[in-house]
């Protein structure tokens, strides 16, 4: 069986956690990246090991280039050549209108969501590309339906950062298609995670769910299924694609 070694950024909770558990069950060796919540990340690692899988956790702020480079070097040493990257870590800030945004806030959101995704993708490509002696691989970027919808009166800065993730997906997919690397994105809608509390409204999904065509929010496990498929050889002819999973919105 192919030896899949997969890094999931922001794997300590939410969509990243669900993805780590599912990929481990499918036989991937997992590296869970997190920023600060060590206990949560270690809990995911322990669960994977309990179920017979293999995982490590590495703390690194993906907005910090040096920390990202050090994380990839640690993966090289501890796990071997990376075959998969899930660019999942992302942040949003308190709900606000554009009139209330300042440059510092916009830069903070972009540092994690955009720069972090770019730098992680760069380090992954260096290891996967055939021209560098790699074996190819797959990258899945976790974008958002917000990139299409704009998130007015909530977080247009966040939505715009996901627009940049979409463009990264398209551009990188074309750059590395001949290098054995596929790059795709999922665009989830309203998913039950703790992220909405960071935006100031823990109950956000339940507040708006009746406005969605499917009349319900999504579960992290549903997003994980799509990510796992895009990473897998079953999606071997799929690159530069976007999988919208927003309950019909
Ligand atoms: P979440 O529950 O808030 O989890 C975020 C994860 O990212 C945590 O593990 C966190 O680690 C990590 N993280 C945040 N900033 C980081 C940084 N600078 N460096 C490294 N790790 C960092 O989020 P989620 O809802 O699962 O979202 C995951 C992805 O899906 C995000 O990209 C988000 O934009 C996207 N998404 C979510 C929804 C939704 O409705 N939930 C919808 C569309 C798209 P710590 O806990 O250690 O800080």
TrEMBL record:
UniProt keyword annotation of ATP-binding present: no
Listed SMART domains: PKS_KR
Domain Ketoreductase, residue spans: 4-191
Superkingdom field: Bacteria
Keyword Oxidoreductase set for record: yes
Keywords associated with the record: Oxidoreductase
UniProt similarity note: Belongs to the short-chain dehydrogenases/reductases (SDR) family.
NCBIfam families hit by this protein: PRK06123.1 (NF004777), PRK09730.1 (NF007273)
Name this protein carries in UniProt: SDR family oxidoreductase
Lineage, opening ranks: Bacteria, Pseudomonadati, Pseudomonadota, Gammaproteobacteria, Enterobacterales
């Amino acid at each position: 069986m192919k030896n899949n070694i997969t890094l999931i950024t922001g794997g300590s909770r939410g969509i990243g956690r669900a993805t780590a558990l599912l990929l481990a069950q499918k036989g991937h060796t997992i590296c869970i990246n997190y920023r600060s919540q060590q206990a949560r990340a270690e809990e995911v690692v322990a669960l994977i090991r309990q179920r017979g899988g293999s995982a490590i956790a590495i703390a690194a702020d993906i907005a910090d280039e040096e920390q990202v480079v050090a994380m990839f070097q640690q993966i090289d040493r501890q796990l071997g050549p990376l075959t998969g990257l899930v660019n999942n870590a992302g942040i949003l800030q308190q709900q606000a209108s554009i009139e209330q945004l300042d440059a510092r806030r916009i830069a903070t959101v972009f540092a994690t969501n955009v720069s972090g995704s770019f730098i992680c993708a760069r380090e992954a490509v260096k290891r996967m590309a055939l021209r560098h002696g790699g074996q190819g691989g797959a990258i899945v970027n976790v974008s958002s339906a917000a990139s299409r919808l704009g998130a007015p009166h909530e977080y247009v800065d966040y939505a715009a950062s996901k627009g940049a993730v979409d463009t990264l997906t398209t551009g990188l997919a074309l750059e590395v298609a001949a290098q054995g690397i596929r790059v795709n994105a999922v665009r989830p809608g309203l998913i039950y995670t703790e992220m909405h509390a960071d935006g100031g409204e823990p109950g956000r999904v339940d507040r708006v769910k009746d406005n969605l065509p499917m009349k319900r929010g999504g579960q992290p496990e549903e997003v994980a299924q799509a990510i796992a498929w895009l990473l897998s050889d079953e999606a071997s002819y799929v690159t530069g694609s976007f999988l919208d999973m927003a309950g019909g919105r």
